[in-house]
Write a sequence for this structure.
């Protein structure tokens, strides 16, 4: 996607469309950024909108369309099925959009969103917030040539996202991270899974083989009795293991030994400085809009993650039919 021109304004005018559980945090974070003027929020639930507006001190609007000429950027935090219809008018006017993940409910809608941003020169960032996890950033800095990756994202059941499957809700985070780490086309995908407590897939396993020979194995579950979030990466020069919960990164690296027949394995555990990923994500979105830079997760990256997630889901459904 072309890099947009910088926006030379004293304070960036931002609105939040959709202030449910996650959208409320968007509004709270924007309200604390000195370089941002939170000009308004929109939600179909008038009571919810009024409550959040009282927290952040901004007006409430019933129709997002009235904000188009009043904002430089928007966060769109509505149900995925409404992403295209809500984001379209803003993108058509060149307004920068941060669109929560996944980019869309279907590949066609995702392609349309990316095309709109490209055509009108609008910045489009997709809310894959785990890219701003301090542990993930530390891991990515140490990746050279990943050959095998294991990703585990498992937790107990929650009513929060029972309208979508675990692939779209949870696994897509790790798919996005892995696609960014490996950086080569996918050769083959295989997947299995099952619905356990809902009518959607609640536990899933996917194996992704890349064109360069790298392999990734992912497990996502929302019906586990213990919470696990872990990444393991094997590469020719060593091994890395990231524990998202403890924010520790275990590193094992090979070092040559003078006169020795084999290199020495040196191990260390790094304690990662905790950060709030959503705060970093929104601050970076504001920076990109103001400077005309490139989002960490642009529309194309969001579309790739969606395409792979949809293929994983379809393989599981086909095997279950």
């Amino acid at each position: 996607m072309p890099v947009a021109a910088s926006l030379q304004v004293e304070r960036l005018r931002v609105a939040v469309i959709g202030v449910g559980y996650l959208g409320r945090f968007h509004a709270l974070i924007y309200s604390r950024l000195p370089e941002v003027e939170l000009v308004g929020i929109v939600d179909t639930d008038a009571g919810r909108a009024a409550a959040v507006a009282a927290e952040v001190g901004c007006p409430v609007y019933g129709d997002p369309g009235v904000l188009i000429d009043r904002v430089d950027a928007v966060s769109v935090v509505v149900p995925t099925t409404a992403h295209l219809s809500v984001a379209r008018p803003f993108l058509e006017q060149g307004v920068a959009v941060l669109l929560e993940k996944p980019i869309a409910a279907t590949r066609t809608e995702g392609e349309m969103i990316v095309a709109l941003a490209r055509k009108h020169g609008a910045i489009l960032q997709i809310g894959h917030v785990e890219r701003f996890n301090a542990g993930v950033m530390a891991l990515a800095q140490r990746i050279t040539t990943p050959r095998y990756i294991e990703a585990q994202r498992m937790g107990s059941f929650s009513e929060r996202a029972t309208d979508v499957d675990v692939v779209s809700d949870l696994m897509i985070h790790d798919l996005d991270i892995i696609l960014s780490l490996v950086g080569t086309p996918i050769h083959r995908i295989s997947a299995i899974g099952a619905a356990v407590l809902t009518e959607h897939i609640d536990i899933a396993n996917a194996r992704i083989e890349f064109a360069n020979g790298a392999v990734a194995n992912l497990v996502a579950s929302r019906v586990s009795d213990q919470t696990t979030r872990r990444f393991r990466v094997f590469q020719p020069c060593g091994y890395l293991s990231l524990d998202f919960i403890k924010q520790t990164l275990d590193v094992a690296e090979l070092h040559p030994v003078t006169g020795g027949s084999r290199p020495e394995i040196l191990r260390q555990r790094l304690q990662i400085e905790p950060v709030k990923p959503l705060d970093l994500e929104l601050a970076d979105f504001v920076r990109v809009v103001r400077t005309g830079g490139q989002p960490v997760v642009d529309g194309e990256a969001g579309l790739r993650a969606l395409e792979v997630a949809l293929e994983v889901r379809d393989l599981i459904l086909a095997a279950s039919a």
The first helix runs from residue 21 to 32. Residues 91 and 257 are 57 Å apart (CA to CA). Helices lie at 21-32, 46-56, 83-92, 107-120, 134-141, 166-182, 277-291, 299-320. The chain has a mean pLDDT of 93.
